[in-house]
């Protein structure tokens, strides 16, 4: 008998000859003729396929197959690898691996197209905690946002009458725009530390910021009627440590730690609210980190292992690679810089020998500003654009191009889609389609 694979689509042909619906067949990897009509004649359309009806299996065999399938699913969950479970159901393992490490493809350098989103940012203090948020019509979810050291919530809003002093840095604003475009309410918090602006997230039960954020959000959610919405959290650097810890003391539907991780042993504690006597499962986690920060990459790998094996959490990662510095990097991402000015910035950096022959940065821009900053200060098109570290959009985009340690807005829709499919009720969503016929089809194909 000549062995080959048959297409699941051919099942429709079998159904057309009165052998039952497509769901009643398990496809066998053989190539043969199968009788299909009452006279026992073989249809020419079925020369290259063979179906075996489930009814032909004895009850004992069917029961054994079902038992094996159930054991397989339990084993996958026990191993703490929900990605394998997802791959079994959806056949997506190869796709997931390709998207985690795009190896310099165009997608690595993608820019969120959110230029048409209109926003009205508001800055408020709630019981001493500074927040900047944007209201949206018919909100679908909430996205909590946490800055890194030397930053604040004011990075996430434009300077305006309702958000005085706000900086509107490009990556932060692109994140906010993407959230608003999805009808997610973006809420940025400032840390309680007014000196170095880092988050108090060194020790889980000694943190001042974790209870402050919980109480502030609860009051804001009640006032704005957001209590029943899914809640996600994204943080960069020190803010990433904050969201990893926050998930242990506040039920969240998914978190996005960027460019930072925690010592693995700190992620072993069961998420609980000691005061309320409640516990919950750790939410899905989507790590985003950069290629030149190899120490963080190693810690992320260790954290992923702990979160899967100890917490049973859904976890994945995305590696951000260096990108070339072009005029488009500035005109396409920084508001207030037109194409002519962006071209002048690019030429100034090239003249300062900061870029190599393929326009990638040769050195860390944070450590070499003495080489290129004077030339930029002389450009008239940059009047009104900050060139001070931590408040400068130019610095931010150069750090992004270097790809060692910087917040990033790229791929946020993809990240939120992944989280949305796996939030706290995501297990039920993913397991619902896993019916015996579907399992058998995967086993026999």
Automatic annotation (TrEMBL):
<keyword id="KW-0812">Transmembrane</keyword>
<feature type="transmembrane region" description="Helical">
    <location>
        <begin position="60"/>
        <end position="79"/>
    </location>
</feature>
<keyword id="KW-1133">Transmembrane helix</keyword>
<protein>
    <recommendedName>
        <fullName>Alpha/beta-hydrolase</fullName>
    </recommendedName>
</protein>
<dbReference type="InterPro" id="IPR029058">
    <property type="entry name" value="AB_hydrolase_fold"/>
</dbReference>
<keyword id="KW-0472">Membrane</keyword>
